């Protein structure tokens, strides 16, 4: 494995370098999943030659959306590709998954309510107070319910994630 100093270079990222350094330091698989290139002498003045430039926005993984039937059973499943940093709502809209998101992902409604498996729910950061308040308005809420607009995906944590769309979800767009 390459040392973190060889994986990161401030000028190579679109996001805050401190956040990228922290994320890379906490994830062993970070460098393995990312397309990268080696910096040639002089191509990035702030990077020493040999620095590997990682491009996390190209690192895709699979998320499974499962539509719940009226009886609680799975009524259909769709596997889609997601990228680290996207929200579940963004991935759903990008792939024509039937989740509304009436507020545009601003945590001002509960139309993007989804249910996660217990292990996935436990691995994610806890919902904030606004999200918990909005979930109070959703139908068929469970202990592992989240709002899709508030769940940011990470490849290391969410590859193969199964997301259940509750039967009682109302989609006014379709």
Notes on the structure:
The chain has six helices and seven strands, in the order ααββββαβααβαβ. The protein is α+β, with helices and mostly antiparallel strands and 174 residues long. The strands form two sheets. The protein has a five-stranded mixed β-sheet. The chain has a two-stranded antiparallel sheet with strand order 1-2. The chain is globular, with a radius of gyration of 19 Å. Residues 1-15, 21-45 and 53-57 have low confidence and may be disordered.
Task: Please specify the SSE layout and strand pairing.
Elements: H1 4-7, H2 17-25, E1 36-38, E2 52-54, E3 60-68, E4 74-83, H3 88-94, E5 113-116, H4 118-123, H5 129-135, E6 145-147, H6 155-158, E7 161-165
Parallel strand pairs: 3-7
Antiparallel strand pairs: 1-2, 3-4, 5-6, 5-7
Q: Low-confidence segments, ≥5 residues, pLDDT <50?
A: 1-15, 21-45, 53-57
The total beta strand count reads: 7
Strand content: 15-25%
Question: Strand order within the widest sheet?
Answer: 4-3-7-5-6
* CA radius of gyration: 19 Å
Number of contiguous helices: 6
What is the string of helix and strand elements?
Answer: HHEEEEHEHHEHE
Biggest pleated sheet: 5 strands, mixed
What is the average of the pLDDT values? 76
Given helix and strand content, the structural type is: alpha+beta
Helix fraction bin: 10-25%
Q: First CA to last CA: what distance?
A: 48 Å
Shape: globular
